[in-house]
Design a protein that fits this description.
By secondary structure, the chain is an alpha/beta fold. It has one domain (14-202): Rossmann fold, CATH 3.40.50. The chain is 25% helix and 33% strand. The chain has 6 helices and 9 strands, in the order E-E-H-H-E-H-E-H-E-H-E-H-E-E-E. It has helices at 48-57, 59-62, 76-83, 96-108, 123-127, 148-157; strands at 14-24, 34-40, 66-69, 88-93, 116-120, 134-139, 161-172, 184-191, 195-202. The strands form 2 sheets. It has a 7-stranded mixed beta sheet with strand order 5-4-3-6-7-9-8, sandwiched between helices. Strand 6, helix 6 and strand 7 form a beta-alpha-beta unit. The protein is globular.
Amino acid sequence: MKRGEKRSSKSSVTVSSKPSGTVRIISGRFRGRKLPVLDVQGLRPTTDKNREMLFSWLMPYTLDARCLDAFAGSGGLGFEALSRYGKSCTFIELHKNAAKQVAENIQLLDLSAQQAQIIQGDTLETLNHLSQAYELIFLDPPFNQNLLPQTIQRIDKNGLLSIDGVIYIECEGQGVSYSVPGNWQLIKEKRSTQILARVYQRNS
């Protein structure tokens, strides 16, 4: 889902400023809704199959959760969480047109400012200015940009993951190295040659 100007978001070069596809919400109150997705180089919405797997993992943690979709791209993960009765979601996206499309999709779903907000800007910089902790965080950064170490460090340093909160991390299946704080416990993992997907929970 991503690519970046300052090398910390999901998208880089817009091939077109018009929607060229859709992302389908799988379950919940917006089940079956299709949201427009821009044709942006490097933007790779998580597949239906992977989102279904992920949200089966996250079922105990989504209800009433304050969510952060830190490299939003299409916003598919954040919108799926809101559909499954997450309390709110903050989306961060560097690419201007992709962020605008997320904003339009927020309106399309008739979500209030308290339920969903989009921040257009550099993820690493934005993480230094967020003022609340989140129960559910999605980290699906651009591949091949080595963004995870700094992103994880800033989330931990700024206390952005609440106690008992969960964080989903998706990255390349091979050649990626990152570490997490000692109080983040790995609770789910799926590995393939293309993708490594993990869910951690922060212990007290």
